[in-house]
TrEMBL record:
GO-annotated biological processes: mitochondrial respiratory chain complex assembly; programmed cell death
Cofactor dependency: FAD
Keyword entries, A-Z: Apoptosis, FAD, Flavoprotein, NAD, Oxidoreductase, Transit peptide
Highest classification ranks of the organism: Bacteria, Bacillati, Actinomycetota, Actinomycetes, Micrococcales
Source organism: Brachybacterium ginsengisoli
Protein name as annotated: N-acylamino acid racemase
Residue ranges occupied by any FAD/NAD(P)-binding domain in the UniProt entry: 8-301
Assigned GO CC terms: cytoplasm
């Protein structure tokens, strides 16, 4: 194993998709530059969406099939299981948990997010799904008719519950809403999804707010109202927390719990950039926001990498996000908030839809339900609406569903 060096031209802190994209951009822009990737994860960077998608229903269930081959293809030196505990912008150094000091020319924070857990529950039958290690552990639990409870009816919870139906398990999906994904989707879609999920054998438990888990011979999950669910394992999809401890301790400007960056993804510290989940950026269409999805990780990581190599490229990308839920799928741009005004347009078969999300008459988000190759057009619609060039009455027909 290569020893950690004294100095690198560029140091990337984090081991996800944003780190991989930054290393590729750096290598292309400055092939002779030295790059170190310091990742707390023991596994090399992988395409993480596959952990709840393709690995369950694709050609291979081996997470190594999703390895991004970052080190091999970028020339970067990758150090896994290497936790950075200090970022010192004044001396242009980082310090690892082993006390190693590394000097950098530029540094990138791509530390991502961590899953929320119950603080008093320490049992290997209770897990989240964020890493390759989590995936392998869940695969081991999902066998022999095991009862697995998934808690959380949002993005990750619905994907994990769907994935588990491909295994020999009894799946329960408990969530706090009236229906799964009802914080994002109109009733027309949530009612359809409820039928699909129950049709695949998933037991749905609405209105379940997890209060605690008793760990004995079996797990007993208790809601705030005293309702109990019994399971052999539990997957918690309770959302994520941005990993900004390192940035905060270094004195970087934080806002809304994220790291403030300028249009070039530079932080408040000289020669320190941020990309991916933790970056609070000024979206060209939607204003100040942070985004926790892979499209943003890839695009912002690549822009940051080019800028670390000397470019002055503004980050002007409005990210998309996507999911596949059994035979349905969607892509989306912007805010999908069911509290906003939702205007639906369906195809004749009622199998595909476009939903516009409006606030004060302006489009804030677009859902493309079973509607493909329309993301760029969705961005155009948002831009035109935000600029007052497209009235709500004129939205119908702008993006044909299907």
């Amino acid at each position: 194993m290569t020893d950690l060096g004294y100095r690198y031209d560029h140091v990337i802190i984090g081991g996800g998709v944003a780190a991989d994209a930054a290393a590729r951009a750096l290598h292309e822009a400055a092939p002779e530059a030295s790059i170190a990737i310091l990742s707390a994860d023991p596994h090399s960077p992988v395409y993480r969406p596959a952990l709840s998608k393709d690995l369950w229903h694709g050609e291979s269930d081996d997470p190594d099939s999703q390895d991004l081959r970052t080190a091999e293809e970028t020339g970067a030196v990758l150090f896994t299981a290497t936790l950075v505990t200090e970022l010192c912008p004044g001396s242009h150094t980082v310090v690892t948990a082993r006390g190693q000091v590394v000097h950098y020319g530029t540094a990138l924070l791509a530390t991502g997010s961590t899953a929320r857990h119950l603080p008093d529950v320490h049992d290997d039958r209770v897990l989240s799904l964020r890493t390759v290690g989590d995936y392998r552990h869940l695969r081991g639990l999902a066998r022999d008719g095991a009862r697995i409870a998934v808690v959380g009816g949002g993005y990750i919870g619905t994907e994990v519950a769907a994935a588990l139906t491909r295994t020999d398990t009894q799946v329960t999906l408990a969530h706090s809403g009236r229906a799964i994904l009802d914080h994002m989707f109109p009733v027309s879609i949530t009612e359809h999804l409820e039928q699909v999920y129950t049709g695949h054998g998933i037991t749905l438990v609405p209105g379940f707010r997890l209060a605690g888990i008793e760990t004995g011979d079996e797990l007993v999950l208790r809601s705030e109202t005293g309702e109990e669910l019994r399971a052999d394992a539990a997957v918690l999809g309770l959302g994520a927390e941005l990993s900004t401890t390192l940035a905060g301790a270094a004195g970087l400007d934080l806002e809304r719990g994220a790291v403030v960056v300028d249009p070039y993804l530079r932080t408040s510290a000289p020669d320190v950039y941020a990309a991916g989940d933790i970056a609070l950026f000024d979206d060209a269409l939607l204003g100040l926001r942070h985004v926790e999805h892979v499209d943003h990780a890839q695009a912002s990581g690549a822009t940051a990498g080019r800028n670390m190599a000397g470019a002055e490229e503004a980050y002007e990308h409005t990210p998309l996000f996507f999911s596949d839920l059994f035979d349905d799928g969607y892509e989306a741009v912007g805010r999908l908030d069911a509290h906003l005004e939702m205007r639906e347009e369906w195809n004749e078969e009622h199998t595909a839809a476009v939903v516009h999300y409006l606030e004060d008459g302006a489009v804030e988000g677009v859902l493309l339900w079973n509607t493909w190759d329309a993301v760029d057009r969705a961005r155009e619609v948002i831009a035109a609406s935000q600029q007052g060039e497209l009235a709500p009455a004129d939205l119908r027909g702008q993006i044909p569903p299907g």
